[in-house]
Amino acid sequence: MSVRKILIVDDEAAMRKLIRSFLVQEGYAVLEAANGLDALKAAASDQPDIMIVDVMMPYMDGFTFTEELRKTSNTPVIFLSAKGEEWDKVKGLRLGADDYLVKPFHSGELLARIESVLRRTDPNFRKEELLKAGPVSLDQTSHRAFIDEQELSLTVKEFKLLSLLMTNKNSVVTREYLMETVWGHDYSGTERTVDTHVKTLRMKMKQHGELIKTVWGLGYKLEV
């Protein structure tokens, strides 16, 4: 698989440096721009595979940038913003963004969203299909999960939950992200749905269910 290029668009140098550090560790090539105007130039000249775009920036904000970008390009965009109101998310998605992540965020969550968007938009993008975390293994190609080589009988949503927790093992995955990723942006239920499915997943994992830790007020973590 060729190296994917990611353009980070954020007026805060410290935030660009932080995001760059863990993207480089994951094998991505990273480009940077400090505002929407510079990002439009970089998008045209460097042709990144995906862009991580802050909403509130000087000269040209993220919403305006994406509106201009969509006139000539379908390059995927993930918004990062401290603005977590529902209307801001709706506006961003309607302007053509592929996802919207509220600050502060965990690096594992951003990486998972990048991979999810690339899988949807790039037919040549492939990540490791076999996930392992302690005694748990998960084959994403055949949709089969095992503990100590004993197969688990999981529903589609339980499989997706376990996959997300394993992809972000030892990191907190928020209830909001689990709900949006597994049930979709348009799901009208409550986060209690996530708790119920995690409870069932733990039961099916028997004594190994304790690997899934509850992080009160945030979400869950698969700790191995």
TrEMBL record:
Protein's name in the database: DNA-binding response regulator
Gene Ontology biological process terms from the UniProt entry: regulation of DNA-templated transcription
Record GO cellular component, one term: protein-DNA complex
UniProt superkingdom: Bacteria
Compartments, record wording: Cytoplasm
A Pfam family this chain is assigned to: Trans_reg_C
Record key words, sorted: Activator, Cytoplasm, DNA-binding, Phosphoprotein, Transcription, Transcription regulation, Two-component regulatory system
Predominant localisation class: cytoplasm
PROSITE patterns, A to Z: OMPR_PHOB, RESPONSE_REGULATORY
